[in-house]
Amino acid sequence: MEIIWVLISFLSGSIPFAVVIAKTFKGIDPRKEGSKNPGTTNVARLCGFQYGLLTLVCDILKGTVPVFLSIWFFDKTDYEWLPSACAFAAFIGHIKSPFLGFHGGKGVATGIGVLIPLAFPPLLAAVCLCVLVIALTGYVSAGALTLYTALPFCYYFFDSSRWIPLSLVMLAIVLWTHKSNMKRLLKGEEKSWRKSKN
Ligand code: G3P
Prior knowledge:
The protein is built from 10 helices and no strands. By secondary structure, the protein is mainly α. It has 2 domains: about 1-115, no CATH class; about 120-198, no CATH class. The structure holds SN-glycerol-3-phosphate. Its EC number is 2.3.1.275. One of its GO terms (molecular function) is glycerol-3-phosphate O-acyltransferase activity. This is Glycerol-3-phosphate acyltransferase. It is a multi-pass membrane protein.
């Protein structure tokens, strides 16, 4: 049963809310326009802030719900590994969605979602840093990279070291999904949130 729950977590993470929301409300496929990323930032860029916000909430929840339920339903001592496995499965589901031909988004919002039920205060600290970087630089990708780089340190400082291995794996994957953003940031070509009307 627990393996099935990991699979359900993967499928939950796979739901391509960015594509569904942008296509339903604006007839736009975010995989074909803007940064071509089916994620919050690109939906906000192409469809407007409120649709980006809706995508953000849905992408967070599709990660939070299966991980929360795995903690709620399964015995913590027998299945200590399960929340991490479900968290990782939902995170990967977003990045390699079977509904999008095993392509997908960059994992930022769903990654935040899966981590909410595990240890909230260190995540909140990393999210605050992310918001600060976005506010100061205007680059959402720089904020996302800051968040995932800060996470292992936040887990350490908030006495939640058991989540450090998961956060390091997620950092490696987020660095990989943000390769094109990092190249643009280094060249000074990344689109700022402040003037990102495509
Ligand atoms: O959520 C992903 C964000 O970090 C960058 O998105 O569309 O600017 O590549 P985008």
